[in-house]
Amino acid sequence: MMPYNSDQQIYEEITRPDSPVAKRLRISPPSPPPPPPPTSANNVNVDEDIEMQMLPEPAPQPPINPVPRAPVPRSNFNLKVYVGNPVNIFRVNRAIVCERSSFFAAACYGRFGQPQTTKVYIREIEPRIFNIILGYIYNNRFNEADHSIPDIGKVLEATDYLGIVYFRDRFLAQVWEQLQAIIDVRAIFIENWTERGRIARSFVRVLKPEYVTMLFTALYRTFYDESKVNMIVHEYLLTGGLEEWHTDPDFVAMLDANERLRSVIRQAWVGNGGEMIWSVNPAVDEDTHMSH
């Protein structure tokens, strides 16, 4: 395919509704978000428990996760989960949440729980975020394009806290797919990609410094495998934009707060031919370099 020669062409190729690139980048209108958690008058009255509303069945997903669950009969909502502060109460199916979450399995069947456990308290997670996670637990559904960047970070950290082991890999598979689409676009727009890549980064969310900062912060806080962080850095490098983010204040602050993560990102960057630009403190770079 001949390279396109105008900024308008790159925009149209990425945003055209029937473009496979647009579909892979999830630029089309997102599906309706899950309903917000209902609230009761005083939030903690057991007589006014909140029953989890089932989300619609999603489209078939790749076999990276267990098979989606069928709707659960109301009589099987046999566990009350007290979430957030102030508290919202969710009624959930104990067997399903224990199967998907090591936290719930321990709370209900582990050393600090019994099979007859009927209440679990999770004050560390916002009810709104917990509602999103329940949608994933019941329906195997999470489309990152449906949610704000800060909420995605909260969901990543909350699923790690709850021990939902498949979620992060599924999410990263979505990020990976979008990065691959950008790399394919770069192959089409061979000429002047440095400038045109900036155009793509202006409206492709996964390339924005705010998104990248959220992603690497969440991966760092959840102690993700450094080799996989390395792979994600490599994909971002191939999009041609990673070198620009070191001037973004939030991204720099994230690196300054996570020296080990900065070292991982810097090594991946340098190992793929980039310059040593990832520290605002030359002494830190020198010390890190010497330690390896």
UniProtKB/TrEMBL annotation:
Domain of life the protein comes from: Eukaryota
Annotated TM spans: none
Compositional bias annotation for Pro residues: 29-39
Family matches, as Pfam families: BTB (PF00651)
Spans annotated as Disordered: 1-45
PROSITE patterns reported for this sequence: BTB
InterPro entries referenced in this protein's UniProt entry, alphabetically: BTB/POZ_dom, SKP1/BTB/POZ_sf
Domain BTB: 77-146
Annotated Gene3D superfamilies: Potassium Channel Kv1.1, Chain A
SMART domains for the chain: BTB (SM00225)
Protein name: BTB domain-containing protein
Organism: Orbilia brochopaga
Biological classification of the source: Eukaryota, Fungi, Dikarya, Ascomycota, Pezizomycotina
